[in-house]
Design a protein that fits this description.
With 146 residues, this protein is α+β, with helices and mostly antiparallel strands. It is built from 2 helices and 5 strands. It folds into 2 domains: 37 residues; 87 residues, no CATH class. Strands 1, 2, 3, 4 and 5 form a 5-stranded antiparallel β-sheet that branches.
Length: 146
């Protein structure tokens, strides 16, 4: 007849093995979540937010904001947002249709900087091939403020 005996050593090792399995399982789940998040960001179409961005920009500038070009996001710990062919309209009385025309706008945001207080801060921005038209309205007051 075969009798199984559990020694003290085996009973002490079982909780440790469970803890290690729980830790490894949690680590694997976090890795899968990270891969899914990066994959979602790589295939995210920012064009679906174009209407909302234009509406908020129009509200903020009190002038028509139009984004005619592509919008791309390069994911990293400091993601880079690239927006092309951005136009901010002039009022109807102005001689030119656009207040500003930005061919390419780049914005880099720090999500994971060395200094924790700076998380979410804009690290750098750049624009190239810009046109700016500042026109003053001769009626009551100015049509612009700098």
């Amino acid at each position: 007849m075969c009798v199984w005996r559990i020694t003290d050593y085996e009973t002490r090792q079982r909780p440790l093995v469970r803890l290690i399995k729980l830790f490894l399982g949690s680590l694997a789940a976090l890795a899968v979540l990270a891969v899914l998040l990066v994959t979602a960001l790589l295939f995210l179409d920012l064009g679906m937010f174009r209407g909302q961005i234009e509406a908020r920009g129009t509200e903020a500038f009190d002038r028509r904001l139009t984004i005619a070009g592509p919008m791309r996001l390069k994911p990293s710990f400091q993601p880079l947002l690239v927006v092309e062919d951005v136009r901010i309209g002039n009022p109807e009385w102005a001689s030119r249709p656009d207040f500003a025309h930005i061919q390419r706008l780049e914005i880099r945001v720090a999500l994971w900087p060395p200094v924790p207080r700076a998380a979410g801060c804009m690290r750098s921005s750049g624009a190239c091939q810009n046109q700016l038209s500042i026109i003053r309205y001769l009626g009551a007051g100015t049509g612009w403020a700098v």
